[in-house]
Amino acid sequence: MMKSLFKYYLIISFMILSILLSSIWFFNQEGDKDKLQELRRYTVKNFEKELEYQQKTLLTFALALSEDAALKKTMLEKNQHQAYELLYEISNKFVKNTDIKKLRLQLITDELEIFAQNWKKTNSVKSLGQFRADLIKLKSNRRPKVGIETGRRLTFKSTIPMSSGKQTIGYLEVIQFIDEFVDKLREQGIELFVLMDRAYIIEDSLMKDFPLLDKYVIANENYNIKLKKQIESFPWIKLEHLGYYEHDETFFMLKDMLNSEDVVIGKYLIILPKEIFLAYKESYQDISRITRFSDEDIYNYIHRENSTSGSYRNFEDRELVELLPKLFKNDKQILQEVARVKLQAYSKDELIDIILEKNHKEVKRGVIK
After folding, report:
1. pLDDT at 16
2. Which is the CATH superfamily of the domain at 54-178?
3. Burial 272-294 (b: 16+ CB within 10 A, else e)
């Protein structure tokens, strides 16, 4: 009797223990999913800021260039040779004096025909209306636009109507290859595959022979080959279903790619490499410490003036200096010189006060073992 009762309690205890262990495992799994979802949300948000900043910069440049009197004159006088010379000179100056590696400029007539391009001389007329629906819409609404556009290549394009008085005489288009945006993110420790839906491959596309990833064309030529092989080894359907996937200690995230008309034309595959992903997963540190500041974040951050400045002369100086340790090497180099120039204007006593204040405020962080 006692043996049967003991056996009965043992079975009950084993079942309860199994349920508890299963519950612990389940909630740990759910907790890990929540952390991964949170990481995806913050990373995609920062990515969107980078994308927006890239497009705003291109639009600002195009708007300024569209008011160039010399360019307008070439269109009014129908001087294609002079237009080419001007576009070539402008693009060369930008490539030589900025981080831009390749910049394409073209002038389009009001009849939607190519008038001049900076990358080749031409006297021939090519109509764009038959495969550029966005230009037909622009001809109707006359509104400047910027976005990622399909064509012979997938590029950032900003297209601006050019006017003489009240008359529209044509359009200026500033074009930048997507590869430069990928390089910029790579410098920040993030990899990107720009995946275009094959439905948007036009007849004379230069992307016809570009490699595929699942059902998409890889539009950026500077993609990471090792990561492509890694991606092909895991179930793509899980990545599409969840919007993220962890594989070999690397974190993959999908985001819809929209053109200037907000039409989905493909996907962005954003990848956090092992070192950044593990820093979050193993240390459970605040997301903000591993996601990147966008260019616009940095600009806005150092221009806030709604807090006390402490021992600094103003809030901007304090925020600039305190921002530096949070940046990666490339971003830090950009702002270090700005900080150095600002601090050179401080007296020795002011600098001592800053050091003392900083040391007083420092808090040691770690795990007690």
Report:
1. 54
2. PAS domain (3.30.450.20)
3. bbeebbeebbeeeeeeeebbbbb
